[in-house]
């Protein structure tokens, strides 16, 4: 969905902690995966400290591969940004958006009907223009590096589903946006910002029920791993998080990717814990518990709420700047490109360009906040599993090393890359912390979890 239906995307989808991937994953939102590797490690039964890494290390061949893959992803991130803006500018300057608006007007006088015609047309045009990049970033690249199991037909199906979701949700958001712009030409940036709060919360609530099942199947974990489910429940109790057994799931990620992952998603009644089947195959139960402990940390430490509030604040500033820029552009260039006013649907590509550019500029801030929360979640995982897992430090370090190898995570990212687009601290930093953070051996109290 990329930069699509922007306000929701920014407030919800762009927030890494809201639907956080496991303790390590590649820094980008692009699909990631990993090669078929060592068989699953057996559940730990004895002292494993000696086998636990203290740094993120890869053999020379894998290191070369990881660096090449990461470099491609970094380039794609910036190419994606430039391409998105270029497509919006193209649809504006060639008057394509204005033509879509004219068709919509001819077919209906009702604003909502016009949006329901305009948005799918616009979404289809933009998606087709960016499809070569989507194909390369979401399919070809992962196949080149042996990271995916998805067939082209399945990928194409997902691409089409994304387009359909974008068209439906985009129609709703665009309809509300232009309604507000027309009713309050000078204050829309504030009123629309207010409306993004219930919209984003509603999306977070419904996403696990409505969107996720469109792409994957979920099986209650107690059916496949009853013993692990009991241990997960014990860890959740210790963390003070209530999730019924029936909402702890295994997801069939292996149908599409080789990636390892887990997450806690939804809010309130839709809250649920999900482990990817690949994770269960490649990791021991102890390591899986550490991965889940990290995800649970985001919930218990209220990272979702804090990050949501911080991002909403940033979005408020951004909407104001967008409002000023949009008026400036439409007044200067609008009439020459058949855009009648800011409240005209044909101004949509200009609005998207402005907001995409502004959101790109704030991404280092959002990622900086995210890295802080991710570090806290790592610390939480170690604390919450202390007493449940025999050696949390070793299990966490091994889990991160496995995730790094499987994800082809960059062993040595450039500081600028880390600053601009890393939502998690670099893996080497995380493994060093995992191997050395043990307040229990020094008689110090736990900071984030109550002592057992
Ligand atoms: Zn996380």
Topology:
Elements: H1 6-13, H2 60-93, H3 96-107, H4 111-144, H5 152-183, H6 188-210, E1 218-220, H7 221-224, H8 226-239, E2 248-251, E3 262-265, E4 272-276, H9 277-282, H10 285-300, H11 303-333, H12 348-385, H13 392-407, H14 415-421, H15 427-436
Parallel strand pairs: 2-4
Antiparallel strand pairs: 1-2, 3-4
Helix pairs in contact: 1-6, 1-11, 2-4, 2-12, 3-4, 4-5, 5-6, 6-11, 8-10, 10-12, 10-13, 11-12, 13-15
Bound molecules: zinc ion.
TL;DR of this structure?
The chain has 452 residues and is mainly α.
Taking the sheet with the most strands, its summary is: 4 strands, mixed
* N- and C-termini, Cα separation: 43 Å
Strand content: under 5%
Helix vs. strand class: mainly alpha
H and E order: HHHHHHEHHEEEHHHHHHH
Instruction: Give the helix level as a range of percent.
Output: 55-70%
Task: Kindly provide the radius of gyration, computed on alpha-carbon positions and rounded to a whole number of angstroms.
Answer: 23 Å
Tally the helices: 15
**Residue runs with pLDDT of under 50 for 5 or more positions:** 1-49
Molecules bound to protein: zinc ion
Mean pLDDT: 86
Tell me, briefly, the overall form.
Answer: elongated
Give the beta-strand count. Answer: 4
Number of domains: 1
Strand order of the largest sheet: 1-2-4-3
């Amino acid at each position: 969905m990329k930069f699509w239906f922007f306000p929701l995307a920014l407030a919800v989808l762009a927030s890494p902690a809201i639907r956080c991937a496991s303790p390590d994953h590649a820094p980008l939102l692009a699909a990631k995966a990993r090669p078929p590797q060592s068989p699953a490690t057996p559940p730990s039964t004895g002292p494993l400290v000696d086998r636990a890494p203290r740094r993120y290390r890869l053999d020379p061949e894998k290191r070369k591969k990881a660096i090449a893959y990461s470099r491609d992803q970094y380039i794609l991130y910036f190419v994606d940004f430039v391409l998105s803006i270029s497509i919006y500018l193209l649809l504006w300057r060639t008057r394509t958006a204005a033509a879509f608006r004219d068709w919509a007007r001819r077919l209906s006088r009702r604003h909502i009907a016009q949006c329901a015609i305009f948005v799918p047309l616009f979404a289809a045009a933009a998606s087709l223009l960016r499809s070569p990049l989507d194909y390369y970033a979401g399919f070809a690249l992962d196949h080149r590096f042996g990271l995916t199991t998805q067939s082209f037909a399945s990928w194409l199906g997902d691409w089409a589903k994304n387009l359909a979701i974008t068209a439906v949700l985009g129609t709703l958001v665009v309809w509300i946006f232009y309604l507000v712009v027309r009713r309050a030409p000078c204050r829309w940036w504030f009123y629309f910002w207010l409306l993004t709060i219930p919209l984003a919360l509603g999306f977070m609530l419904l996403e696990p029920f409505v969107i996720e099942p469109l792409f994957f199947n979920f099986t209650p974990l107690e059916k496949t791993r009853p013993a692990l489910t009991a241990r997960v429940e014990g860890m959740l109790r210790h963390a003070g998080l209530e999730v019924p057994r029936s909402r702890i799931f295994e997801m069939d990620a292996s149908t599409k990717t080789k990636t390892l992952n887990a997450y806690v998603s939804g809010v309130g009644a839709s809250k649920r814990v999900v482990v990817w089947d690949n994770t269960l195959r490649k990791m021991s139960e102890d390591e899986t518990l550490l991965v889940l402990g990290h995800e649970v940390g985001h919930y218990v430490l209220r990272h979702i709420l804090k990050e949501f509030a911080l991002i909403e604040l940033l979005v408020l500033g951004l909407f104001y700047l967008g409002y000023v820029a949009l008026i400036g552009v439409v007044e200067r260039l609008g009439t020459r490109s058949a855009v009648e006013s800011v409240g005209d649907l044909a101004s949509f590509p200009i609005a998207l360009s402005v907001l995409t550019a502004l959101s790109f500029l704030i991404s280092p801030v959002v990622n900086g906040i995210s890295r802080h929360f991710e570090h806290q979640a790592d610390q939480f995982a170690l604390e919450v599993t202390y007493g449940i897992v025999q050696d949390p430090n070793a299990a966490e370090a091994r889990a991160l090393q496995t995730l790094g190898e499987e994800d082809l995570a960059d062993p040595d990212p450039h500081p600028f890359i880390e600053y601009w687009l890393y939502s998690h601290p670099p893996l080497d930093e995380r493994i060093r912390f995992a191997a050395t953070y043990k307040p229990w051996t020094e008689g110090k109290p736990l900071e984030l979890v109550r002592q057992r």
